[in-house]
Amino acid sequence: MQIATMYFKDRAQLKLQDELLQYNLNKSKGKFVGKRAEAIRELDDFEATRDAAKSIRQRVLDNLDTWLEIFEENARARGTTVLWAETPDEVNRHVLDIAARHGLKKAIKSKSMVSEESALDHAIEAAGMKVVETDLGEYILQINDYEPPSHIIAPALHKSKEEVSALFAKVHGTAPKTGIQELCAEARAVLREHYLTGDLGITGANFLIAETGSVFLVTNEGNATLCTTLPKVHVAITGIEKVVPTLEEASTLLRLLTRSATGQSITNYVDILTGIKGAGEFHGAEHMYVILVDSGRSKVLASEVKEALRCIRCGACMNHCPVYQNIGGHSYGWVYPGPIGSVITPMFIGQEVAADLPNASTLCGSCASVCPVRIPLPELLRKHRETQVRLDLRPVGERLGLRLWTWLASRPALYAWATRLGVRVMKWLGGYEGRIHSLPLASGWTNGRDLPAPAGKTFRELYAARRRAGRQT
Amino acid sequence: MKVGLLVTCLVDMMRPSIGFAALKLLETAGCGVLVPASQTCCGQPGYNSGDREGARRLAAKLVEEFEACDYLVAPSGSCSGMVKTHYPELFADDPSMLARVAALAAKTYELTDFLVKVVKLEAVPGRFAGTVTYHDSCSGLREMGVKAQPRALLAKVPGIKLSEMNEAETCCGFGGTFSIKFGDISSRMADKKCQNIEDSQADAVVLGDLGCMLNIEGRLRRRGNERTKVLHVAELLAGETDEGAS
Question: Are A217 and A203 within 8 A, CB to CB?
Fold first, then answer.
């Protein structure tokens, strides 16, 4: 995907002014947060399930190479071809090679964020093939000139049904619909044609099951089922971190994934695809490929933010992030928005181009408190900030300011004098109202807020005076 | 019992009344309170901005100043959270310091948590005629487990009514230097908080962290709201507000 992370501030500023987007974001926030809260109450011991999920994921990451080899061996034993891709380009090359090998003309695709990393759809089209996104949200974005997704599980969350209605009418040449059901029916009719004519099915994978070599997929629309069973070739593209040792463990993760994501006990469809169609079997692809994508993941594994690889892509962190809730996913400027995006994006595309992301957080901790696999997201954001200081990526003014503060705060006598002076100046600036309306060095604050002015004396002065008075009486 | 009061740099400069209110509450509870004169900043601004070395220097200074006390208490979930949850991480690679830090962390409390759990304060000096709403500041809530404690203490104030706002646990948008670096996003978050506060119809919003107070008060006034008071929970409990002390 085109990288726009360096324009974070400008983009966020525009999104804050976009009233329709603000309305749409507010609506979806209420749904996601409320439904998750209800769904986790169904579990007898939600916190213990989170502990279990964390340890399942961590156990894999601690020996990722071994689990990947076990997966590869078991997948091969069932006729699946396992391919490895170190870079986004390699992902696209593998897919195009497979298409050429089998003479494929038309890809039908279930939602895959990993394929967004390498802009796979564009590569497929550039190779002269056709590609159709079949997830409703992704389909909406595709027919809107490949608008980027703004959320990892609800890619078109930023759009209202009115916008979708106008888009469908324009692209499909139909009369505008008003109801969501009618819109879905229209998309279904259009997509059905594509399902029947596609010869390459492309999906992601929510999990890879090491013990069976299976691809584990959850959807609500059933589109992944159709994409993996109707075409003669199925290609699953996923990150190397998605492997899980056993089906039993995947089912523990599933209990948290769907509840954390959409507040469902389980999704409408769960597909477990194990190898190619055998003799006498009715369903399944004739050829199955799994592309295991690194694209920066092994770099994450070797870094201070490695815990981010536990992520099962539920989206709860962004749904509960007050920054995401206000600026939406497009502001972040790459594939993965929200807190998890701000942790992994700098690792995937570079700290320099994504420098704003780890800083654009209040570290409020809301994300970590809902993460089903207990990723300490604020700590990881802070690790990135430390890296940026080490790499000299912070602005000079910020660095000098911090250094001056530490220097001063290490010298109590000087500090006492400087703060005495500081609070007097601020009191004066606050005037009779006791409020500062504008501060040149802190316009970020005063553009949107007043700064309540201090009383004019520091606590330490007043306390010392009180102690002196106490001694005299 | 010797309680070390971590005044916090913000309170020292911006609102000393909170420090005196905390002092009064601790003394009311029968604690001997020590206020180390050389205290400055806990190091959190540097820590959250990626300046680990600067943060360690200030942390070591604070440990020195407070480790002789039986308890460290701060009228701030953010600064007490820094000591309790982040100091051990800062010194994870320094075994000799880590032992001292862990010992201090174990006896570090946010003020209302300390008043409820440790000294089990029965009666409070403050009184308030009106309705208040409580904002749960992030560090206090998520790092220090402060939620029921301030509400339990507020319930002891004669004349007070509590009206919970919507989304009381949602961040107000302060976030330290975030509020300046990403001022537009921060102001919007503050604005939504202010709306929820106003919708609660409370006469005052009460909270436990001065950073959030400055943010919320600053936004309320910029919105043209001159009515809603912004009070630190210690000020209200101690009766160190305009409403009158006991």
Answer: yes
Q: How far is CA A191 from CA A197, A312, A388, B76, in A?
A: 10, 28, 46, 56
Buried b (16+ CB within 10 A) or exposed e, B35-54: bbeebbbbbbbbbbbbbbeb
pLDDT in tens, A269-288: 999 999 999 888 888 899 99
> B147 phi and psi, to 5 degrees?
-150, -60
pLDDT band at B241 (very low <50, low <70, confident <90, very high): confident
Question: Which residue in chain A has the smallest CA separation from B220?
Answer: A449
Q: How confident is the model at residue A370 (pLDDT cuts 50, 70, 90)?
A: very high
A172: amino acid identity, one letter: H
CA distance A415 to chain B (A): 8
Contacts of A429 in chain B (CB under 8 A): none
Contacts of A322 (CB under 8 A, 6+ apart): A362, A364, A366, B170, B171, B173, B189
Please give the structure tokens belonging to residue A297.
């993941």
Are residues A326 and B217, on separate chains, in Cβ contact within 8 Å?
no
**For residue B246, what pLDDT is reported?**
36
State the average pLDDT over residues A308-319: 98
The domains of chain B, with CATH numbers, are 2-118 (3.40.50), 130-238 (3.40.50.10700)
Q: Which of residues 51-70 of B touch A (CB under 8 A)?
A: 51-52, 54-55, 57-58, 61
Q: What is the DSSP letter of B223?
A: T
Whether residues B17 and A455 touch (CB distance < 8 A) is answered with: yes
Q: Which of residues 326-365 of A touch B (CB under 8 A)?
A: 326-327, 359-365
What was the pLDDT predicted at B244?
A: 39
A323 part of contact set with chain B, CB < 8 Å: yes
DSSP 8-class letter at B165: P
Q: How confident is the model at residue A29 (pLDDT cuts 50, 70, 90)?
A: confident
**DSSP class of A320:** T
Residues 179-198 of B with CB under 8 A from A: 179-192
Cβ neighbours for B214, distance < 8 A, ≥ 6 positions apart: A451, A452, B10, B14, B174
Measured between CA atoms, the residue of chain A closest to residue B40 is A409
Tokens in use for B214?
């400055």
- B contacts of A458 (beta carbons < 8 Å): 12-13, 16
Closest CA to A439 of B211, B218, B216: B218
- Which domains are assigned to chain A? 43-295 (3.40.50.10420), 410-472 (no CATH)
Tokens of A314: 């539920």
Which of B45, B171, B180 faces A405 most closely, judged by CB atoms? B45
- Which chain A residue shows the shortest CA-CA distance from B137? A364
Query: Under a CB-based contact definition with an 8 Å cutoff, are residues B79 and B46 in contact?
Result: no
Contact call for A382 and B50, based on CB within 8 A: yes
Contact B54, B61 (CB under 8 A): no
Q: DSSP letter at A315?
A: -
pLDDT band for position B242 (50/70/90)? Answer: low
**Partners of B206 in the beta sheet?**
B134, B231
The distance of Cα A330 from the centroid of its chain, to the nearest Å, equals: 11
**Cα–Cα nearest to B52, from B84, B87, B79:** B87
- Choosing among B9, B10, B13, which should be mutated to test the A contact, i.e. which has the most A CBs within 10 A? B13
**Residues of chain A positioned with their CB less than 8 A from the CB of B52:** 386, 389
B92-125: b (≥16 Cβ within 10 Å) or e: eeeeebbebbeebbebbbbbbbbbbebbebeebe
Does B129 have pLDDT greater than 60? Answer: yes
Contact A444 B182 (CB under 8 A): yes
Distance CA B70, CA A124 (A): 68
